[in-house]
Amino acid sequence: MDENTDVWSRQELSDAVDNIITHSSLTSRFCFFVDGLDEYADAQAGDHYALIQYLDRLTQSSCVKIYVSSRPWTVFRDRYNKYDDLKFVLQDLTSEDMRKYAAGQLLEDERFRRLASHEP
């Protein structure tokens, strides 16, 4: 890796993953949090299915756990639906907080309060 940058090349990342996978006697454990699978866009690397295959390679090691997040696109649902018991939908957990926040913001607006007084 170049000493003057914190950005890894695709090859450096791939080599690091291969090193983790191929060393069966690792004493360290790794946990990767990968957010926004649906935001992945790289013409050189291929489509989202290629990304899933890459993550699957990483999980071949018993020393690795991955946690992924994404919008519920078909390609991700098809691959990860078997883990439904391990999945949570963030908006299901925060819907009440979102409702309270939105209501509070509306009640601070004079125009909304006027409208609400006429049309509850």
Write down the overall geometry: elongated
* Poorly predicted runs: none
Estimated helix fraction: 40-55%
Tell me about the biggest sheet? 2 strands, parallel
Q: Averaging pLDDT over every residue, what do you get?
A: 84
Number of strands: 2
> H/E order of the elements?
HEHEHHH
The quaternary state of the protein chains shown equals: single chain
> What count of structural domains?
2
Portion in beta strands? 5-15%
Distance between the terminal alpha carbons, to the nearest Å? Answer: 62 Å
Task: Going across the biggest sheet, name each strand in turn.
Answer: 1-2
What does this structure look like?
By secondary structure, the chain is mainly α. The chain folds into 2 domains: 1-86, no CATH class; 88-120, no CATH class. The protein has helices at residues 10-22, 48-58, 74-80, 90-107, 110-118, and strands at 30-34, 64-68. A two-stranded parallel ribbon has the order 1-2. The protein is elongated, with a radius of gyration of 22 Å.
